[in-house]
Amino acid sequence: DTAVSQTPKYLVTQMGNDKSIKCEQNLGHDTMYWYKQDSKKFLKIMFSYNNKELIINETVPNRFSPKSPDKAHLNLHINSLELGDSAVYFCASSPIDGQKYFGPGTRLTVT
Amino acid sequence: AQKITQTQPGMFVQEKEAVTLDCTYDTSDQSYGLFWYKQPSSGEMIFLIYQGSYDEQNATEGRYSLNFQKARKSANLVISASQLGDSAMYFCAMRERNSGNTPLVFGKGTRLSVIA
Fold it and tell me: What would the DSSP string read from start to end of A36-53?
């Protein structure tokens, strides 16, 4: 009964490629997020969606495009991957009032 | 300015001892929430404890307690009776305007190592 799931768990790809990471939550939450954790373990918000609508975009390059087909899904598509995109990407969801539930993370390695 | 400051990059504690992980925060909001998450070497983010800015009592969850000092803007995590399995990164985080839609702002984390 995974609450927030992400696929794939690991992603190794070459510079210049386009890739997607999928996220699904079965908690019925209205709000979903993408966070990026860099090599120094620093976690930073990238995007926030509420009921399929983008509400926060934290100056992320426009090579990153989130897409929310429905309330339970928030996918992250990355175009023209760069070395600096290597990181762990976490999807999360939350109810109106409560903690954030995190997915297991996707470790992206760009070579 | 950093919103969440964790001044201890690394900490060591003997098994069965208590340990305090420091966290200070900066906000002008009256309503906010403070969180602690644990990230073991396997990588997942595990929610530990939550304190709302209007909560008068310090939050406790099992061996975890949050020492909330509002005037000092500190929200230290206390782990009692440390276990080897507590070895992990610990992140303090804040949600301003304490609404579920607001994303968390994280500190840089503290790596805790529990020694047998």
Answer: EE-TT--EEEEEEEETTE
Find tokens 């070895």 and name the residue. Answer: B87
CA distance linking residue A17 with residue A110, whole number of Å: 9
Structure tokens at A41: 């373990």
Of A111, A96, A84, A102, the C-alpha closest to A35 is A102
Specify whether the CB–CB gap between B33 and B70 falls below 8 A. no
Distance CA A24, CA A72 (A): 6
CB pair distance less than 8 Å for B101 and A42: no
Q: Is B89 on the interface with A (CB under 8 A)?
A: yes
B45 token code pair: 């983010």
Contact yes or no for A99 and B35 at CB 8 A: yes
Q: Residue B90: closest CA among chain A residues belongs to which residue?
A: A41
Q: How many helices and strands, by DSSP H and E, does chain A display?
A: 0, 11
Q: Render each residue's pLDDT in chain B as its tens digit; 116 residues.
A: 679 999 999 999 999 999 999 999 999 999 999 999 999 999 999 999 999 999 989 999 999 999 999 999 999 999 999 999 999 999 999 998 767 678 899 999 999 999 99
Give the C-alpha separation, B49 to B78, whole Å.
11
